[in-house]
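[audit] Reproducing an earlier prediction to check determinism. Same input, same settings, fresh worker. If the tokens differ from the archived copy the diff job will pick it up downstream; this log only records the rerun itself.
[audit] input (394 residues):
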Amino acid sequence: MTTENKRILSIDILRGFVMIVMALDHTRDFFLLGGMTTDPMNPDNTYLSLFFTRWITHLCAPTFVFLSGISAYLSSKNKDPKQAGNFLIKRGFWLLFVEIGIITLGLTFNPLYNVIILQVIWAIGWSMILLGILSKISHRVVSVVGLILFFGHNLLNYITLPDATTFAGRLIAATLTSSGTFIPVSETHSIGLFYVILPWTGAMFLGFSIGHWYNKEFDATTRRKRLFYIGLALFLSFLVLRYFGWYGNPTPRKEYIEPIKTFFSFLNVSKYPPSLQYYGMTLGLTIMLLSQIENLKNRFARLMMVYGNVPFFYYVIHFYLIHFILVIVFFASGYGTKDVVNPQIPFLFHPPNLGFNLGIVYLIWLSVIAILYKPCIWFQSYKATHSQWWLRYL
């Protein structure tokens, strides 16, 4: 096995880990009683196990986006910049279609698409389109723009922005500042915008920028040291900025009478949109982890690679599996067709009183991971033995 393959395996191990953890968050959304109507990170109405069930899943999206940037570099490094850029642009538009047409259906089970949900694949798709455009110019342009977006987007917290009723205001909100909103399209249809684009683009661009550290000729020890110290610096910046209430998050932490609530508030940083402090807390940890797992060859690593090798396939079908299990639970719990639509949420088959405690949620999550194990192995084998053009986009 070559050094280069080991480097790629480390990316797959980490990606597999965050994909598995990500499924916990979505299982919680669907199966925890009140999981879609309460904020598990709010110190005023959470408890320790629920808080950390949500907190650990904060690692997933930024890590997945960052690793997508590295993977984009690795897939492009032996291609003409124009050819590589065009492929990224086409793949970005393909991801937008998947988010709107396929993942939304898996989330809502609503064939009428009364609500279209725009989440991380939406942000990755647009980020990949922008990466394809700028990478044609130069690697340095991608790096500079990535640094500006990553470290500078929270400057908008201190600026009076155009009113949200204006075109400029809506554009800024949709690309940079929105914390999640439903945009009405008609009386019966709306768009749920939860992942604004450019703050996530910054993370992808930085992943792309360090992708050359995974070239075969790059010294592995140097790479590991750089990754570790970058991750450490990001995490320490989070601790300092959060403690003193300085730059990098829309709201400061709060002090409570109960120390545990103060601790919760310290870790409750903005994901929608992702703040610099959020990136420091999450990417700081996972980049340090990435630096330490290059030579990991145990059973855990092999298990993570099963899911990390086919992340797109896993991501799409896990929504359908979770929602299909919900439908079974829905009818098994005595609900009927009159209960399919819940006016409080856009997801069908989820009446207000359907849900379980956190222990049952964990059991369902582990079942989902186990069920997807064999399909992921099958699809990895299928990709390795087939060469259809569409497989390049998965």
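[audit] rerun output stored. Observation attached for the diff report: Residues 248 and 276 are 5 Å apart (CA to CA).
[audit] end
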